[in-house]
Amino acid sequence: MAAKAKHMLHCLFLVASLLLTIVVNGNATTVVKNLDLKRYMGRWYEIARFPSFFEKSDAVDTRATYTLNYNGTVHVLNENWVGGKRNFIEGIAYKADPKSNEAKFKVKFHVPPSVGDYWVLYIDQNYQHAVVGGPTKIFLWVSIYF
């Protein structure tokens, strides 16, 4: 099996497991604790997501690049391509509660100005597969790290 197909199957299994956990636990959302932020930095490629109003349905090659800033915040660069044209948005992520060990972040985008939740719901031990969402459970992304 090709490596990419194997990653996709693994991630689809993760999404199914996560959704089942959400349904079984009701309103409880499990969030990663003690995320190693330095290991999380880099480029993540989206392989699945729930549809959202701020992402075009025909976007391809969607990716997010995270870079740790000197002050502990994270520079966020989200990119995708629609009709061969690159679209991107930049922002800053920071811990929602600096005293918490949970991987709950806020992301502030500059244009258009907005702030959203970014919760790491799952990360494998090798930091190669991640599931990200938020408290509303209407946003969900599955990403792989290359």
TrEMBL record:
Keywords: Signal. Pfam families: Lipocalin_2. Transmembrane segments: none annotated. Residues 1-28 form the signal peptide. Residues 35-142 form the Lipocalin/cytosolic fatty-acid binding domain. Belongs to the calycin superfamily. Lipocalin family. This is Lipocalin/cytosolic fatty-acid binding domain-containing protein.
